[in-house]
Amino acid sequence: MIAATVAGRPVPVSDVDAREAVLRSSPQVAALPRPHTSEGRQLRRWLTQILVTERVIAAEAAALGVTVTDTTPPESALLPDLTARLEIGSVAAAALSDPLARALYAHITAGVDVADGAVADYHRRNPGRFTSDAALAEHLRGAVRRRAFRIWLEQRRAALVWLAPGYEHPGDPRQPDNIHRH
Predict the structure, then answer these.
(1) Closest Cα partner for 86 from 23, 5, 41, 150?
(2) Which terminal CB of the chain, N or C, has fewer other CB atoms within 10 Å?
(3) Hey, what long-range contacts does 36-39 have (CB within 8 A, 24 or more apart)?
(4) What is the pLDDT of residues 88-116, one digit of tens each?
């Protein structure tokens, strides 16, 4: 049985099982939902998203000739705080723990920059938040690069990934375990 395909290559259910088993053998097991419940199925859907994203990244890095080098940025440079992790999304943030994903991020976002006008506008609206224009520009550059990578990754996943029934994205409103309550 397959949970998904990435560029036509299968992602076996056994890979999702193995990833879940690793989580369930960790000290944080008490924080996980019980298996075979709605929340447990949602966890498996999220793990599937992680697996397919890792494979999309590997395929795209190979296609683009991207490899890990001594200039590959550390995770902390790309995701310096919780806000950055929220901006890019939990799946992409999890993927960026891998050096190959960070090398691909650097490649994809190398030409992405923030305009001087955006820096000046932000500074005018938020005086005193940053002590220097350079620090502000770096902050804004990080945000626009995270956005660019997130959009690029979503497009590549849309083009390369097929998800089997039961392994849909956890937020897909068509899957039966997606409930949104206030």
Answers:
(1) 150
(2) C
(3) 38/177, 38/179, 39/177
(4) 999 999 999 999 999 999 999 999 999 98
